[in-house]
Write a structure and sequence with these properties.
Elements: H1 2-28, H2 34-62, H3 67-92, H4 102-123
Helix pairs in contact: 1-2, 2-3, 3-4
């Protein structure tokens, strides 16, 4: 059940990333300064990368990989989506300045997610 929730969240966020990418390319182009449009673009890129990472976590869970580490990996990726991508989206749209220091916390969350994925894969007894 937990793997299905992760996969559903990842798939839904894939759609959100497409919508936000299109919004940035069409509605924000010409309305935002180049540096803010670049921040938006970075958020969309990382959003997509980590949707794919969440999909991998969900699939590994369905294959019986160690749930404990994959749970932390998924939380890291979700936290990164919220704090890293969310803060960049907010800053690009003129959000409060306090969002700036939130971005590195999201980056650390992504790093935690990837590190826990490494540990999870390293603890798998048999692959395939």
């Amino acid at each position: 059940m937990y793997s299905k929730l992760i996969l559903l969240f990842a798939a839904a966020n894939g759609a959100v990333a497409v919508v936000l990418g299109a919004f940035g390319a069409h509605a924000l182009k010409g309305r935002l300064a180049d540096n803010l449009l670049s921040a938006w673009h970075t958020a969309v890129q990382y959003h997509f990368y980590h949707v794919l990472a969440l999909m991998a976590v969900g699939i590994l869970l369905q294959q019986g990989a160690p749930q404990r580490w994959l749970h932390w990996s998924a939380l890291g990726f979700v936290g990164g989506l919220i704090f890293f991508c969310g803060s960049l989206y907010g800053l690009a749209l003129g959000g409060p300045r306090w969002l700036g220091p939130v971005t590195p916390l999201g980056g650390l969350s992504f790093i935690l997610g990837w590190t826990m994925l490494v540990v999870a894969i390293g603890t798998v007894k048999k692959v395939g």
